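Feature request, filed as a ticket because there's no other form

It would be nice if the structure record came with a short human-readable summary line next to the tokens. Right now we just get the raw output. Example of a typical job, pasted below so the devs can see what we mean:
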Amino acid sequence: MNSFSVLGIIVSAISILAIETEAYTWPIPYQSVSNRPKNDPYCQAGLVPFCPTGKSVNSMPFVDPSDIVEVFALKKPVWSFKYGPLMGFFNIMHDGLGFRSKKTGLNYTMEWYELDQLFNCTFPHLLEDGNLKWCNQGALCVYDGINDTVWNQYGFIKKVSEVSGSQYNQFANWSLYDNNTAIYYETWSIYNNNNTDNSQVMFFDSFDCASWVLR
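Raw output as currently delivered:
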């Protein structure tokens, strides 16, 4: 990265902070798309491929409408498979959802996260021609089972609700739609200052694994 590129990024960041907040409606709304584009082949995951044991693209488990489905909140430190509890000390956590059918006893895990891993989504790549490329697509990973050891070792699995099979199936259909329209992972929440009073204005909200769970 040359000095001019670094200076340009710094100047752009300062310009954002200097924006007249009264002249715009904040925060900037999340930009959904009508259909998910193919991921840029330039963008590659580093440590592990995206969703290596997951179901095929645009597939979801559905249940009998009369079933009762237990819902679990899942949380653990990011990259705990490699760094153990380390990221948890900095409150860098990963969230997911677990589901269990009472009729069949089958469990499912659903996680929404970056296609090309966290740092690729957090910072742009500086190309040789001086342009910036973002590798910031996120997507839903769905796979059979809930790995108690992985989630409980440094985090937790907590039952939060029960829903009918019909309600769960509505959620599953929404998840398929959302996965093809809400495709951009955004690591940062950007504010005009670090105050906690009424002077603080959010410019951009984060859109990550926790955002998907909360939605």
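Something like this underneath would help us a lot:
The chain has a mean pLDDT of 87.
The first strand starts at residue 68 and ends at 77.
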